[in-house]
Automatic annotation (TrEMBL):
Catalytic activity reported: tRNA(Ser) + L-serine + ATP = L-seryl-tRNA(Ser) + AMP + diphosphate + H(+); tRNA(Sec) + L-serine + ATP = L-seryl-tRNA(Sec) + AMP + diphosphate + H(+)
HAMAP family hit by this protein: Ser_tRNA_synth_type1
Domain notes: Consists of two distinct domains, a catalytic core and a N-terminal extension that is involved in tRNA binding.
Tree of life domain: Bacteria
Family: Belongs to the class-II aminoacyl-tRNA synthetase family. Type-1 seryl-tRNA synthetase subfamily.
Listed EC numbers: 6.1.1.11
UniProt lineage: Bacteria, Pseudomonadati, Pseudomonadota, Alphaproteobacteria, Hyphomicrobiales
Species name: Hoeflea algicola
Domain Aminoacyl-transfer RNA synthetases class-II family profile: 173-410
Annotated GO MF terms: serine-tRNA ligase activity
Role played: Catalyzes the attachment of serine to tRNA(Ser). Is also able to aminoacylate tRNA(Sec) with serine, to form the misacylated tRNA L-seryl-tRNA(Sec), which will be further converted into selenocysteinyl-tRNA(Sec).
Listed name of the protein: Serine--tRNA ligase
Amino acid sequence: MLDIKWIRENPAALDAALAKRGADPQAEQLVALDEARRSHVGAVQALQERRNAASKEIGKAMAAKDQAAADALKAEVAKLKDELQAGEAKERELDEALKHALSVLPNIPLDEVPVGADEGDNVEIRLGGKKPDLGFEPKEHFELGEALGMMDFERAAKMSGARFTILSGPLARLERALGQFMLDLHTGEHGYREVNPPLLVNDAAAYGTDKLPKFGDDLFRTTDGRWLIPTAEVPLTYMAAGEILDEQQLPLRYTALTACFRSEAGSAGRDTRGMLRQHQFSKVEMVSVTTPETSLEEHERMTASAEAVLNRLGLHYRTVVLCTGDMGFGAQKTYDIEVWLPGQKAYREISSCSVCGDFQARRMNARCRKPGDKATRFVHTLNGSGVAVGRALIAVMENYQNKDGSITVPDALRMYMGGLTRIENPN
């Protein structure tokens, strides 16, 4: 959430930033809404002051045995009470209207973010690894998985509908191995603290991490009003909600391997084959909570941690900085890491690492201060995939496939596979 005071003082800057994102200007409307709210608050305060003064005057009139004056003042206080109740109700309406208007406003891109309309304007900044020379026409992951008898879309659809998958046998173990490998790497070498968070969160957590109200249609809601997490970013980031953190303890770095749930609203017809775009998938998430001065450095560090996963797995990838038109709602700047899939002959996103500044911190009131200081300030938050486990499985299958349809297990995963070096059809 953006600061309304900043918007009042910088209306042109807000509209210029929104224009970079391809959004309409909002400053005039927001400032007018805030002015109406502030004016009304002033009027309510004036009513409160007059009611307090009149209440004191009643006592004086009674002491002077001026019953007529006392009765008139009592009538005035009763009227003021009714006006205050109506005024306070209107104040709550204006507060809620401004809060909603701010809550659907995207974050301000950093100046260094390239301006563009869509993914075609993203800028490649580096390449990692090498494309494999398989020496034969590669298959896509779903062709490999079904031929192995270890990837079943039909049975999954029978019990759950489209965009679900059943993995079995060594392929299921390979997915589990990937998640374990990533957790061990991030906790053992990258300084992240492992967390096992709830998969269900309340409105406050979803709102505080900018998923509500903007992305309500892309979330699954339970009958008791809670939300299935779309990513562990939500519970990991919300751990700082309402806290005043000691700046000497920052940055806080968390990682978690969880199931994630998304309705994929608006993705009809996209990636309908295979398990690239699922309603349920596993992901290792990374979250950092930092001081404002260190968040950009932490962003580079987080992205390098995600790239390290692909380097250890021997996968080719490219890292791009997203343009303003392709960047996520809550991000100031985002790096996407796209892994090479030989079967698709294309790069596909496998990690997205974003710095959000104080955008989420304002929504969930997460602050920090230096030891001995009374003044507080909002923390900065970052989140990134470290990486999407299902997509890593796809990448390993397609990059390590053999001509006979078997899959070689990467060296980094063999200790998690009980020494298994190759996955092949047992029949």
